[in-house]
Amino acid sequence: MVNATDPDQGTGGSVLFSFQPPSSFFTIDGARGTVTVTKPLDYETTSAYQLTVNATDQDKLRPLSRLANLAISITDVQDMDPIFTNLPYSTNIEEDVPLVSVAFHLYPT
Ligand SMILES: [Ca+2]
Ligand SMILES: [Ca+2]
């Protein structure tokens, strides 16, 4: 939630928020300043967002505005499966190898 005050009286003291430019992942409630997620977030794709909030008063003749930065960091959650690399795997084994011989080894990285 972002917050702004404007000491002017009437519409010149009434503030509306917007993102500048608009974000495709977040919206801001113009009157309350509440920032909401509108699209699924993915830490593996984007781990942080830099947004610019514009606060504009509602004076009809000479609206005044100011900008502020909003930094949003995404926290990683455990949502990825392990990935095999260097696929496909194959090996040759002679038919008369002793039992318990190592046939193949996979390395976890
Ligand atoms: Ca004002
Ligand atoms: Ca993750």
UniProtKB/TrEMBL annotation:
<dbReference type="GO" id="GO:0016020">
    <property type="term" value="C:membrane"/>
</dbReference>
<dbReference type="InterPro" id="IPR015919">
    <property type="entry name" value="Cadherin-like_sf"/>
</dbReference>
<keyword id="KW-0106">Calcium</keyword>
<keyword id="KW-0812">Transmembrane</keyword>
<keyword id="KW-0677">Repeat</keyword>
<keyword id="KW-1133">Transmembrane helix</keyword>
<keyword id="KW-0130">Cell adhesion</keyword>
<dbReference type="GO" id="GO:0007156">
    <property type="term" value="P:homophilic cell adhesion via plasma membrane adhesion molecules"/>
</dbReference>
<protein>
    <submittedName>
        <fullName>Cadherin-23 Otocadherin</fullName>
    </submittedName>
</protein>
<dbReference type="InterPro" id="IPR002126">
    <property type="entry name" value="Cadherin-like_dom"/>
</dbReference>
<dbReference type="InterPro" id="IPR050971">
    <property type="entry name" value="Cadherin-domain_protein"/>
</dbReference>
<dbReference type="Pfam" id="PF00028">
    <property type="entry name" value="Cadherin"/>
</dbReference>
<keyword id="KW-0472">Membrane</keyword>
<feature type="domain" description="Cadherin">
    <location>
        <begin position="2"/>
        <end position="84"/>
    </location>
</feature>
<dbReference type="GO" id="GO:0005509">
    <property type="term" value="F:calcium ion binding"/>
</dbReference>
<keyword id="KW-0732">Signal</keyword>
<dbReference type="GO" id="GO:0005911">
    <property type="term" value="C:cell-cell junction"/>
</dbReference>
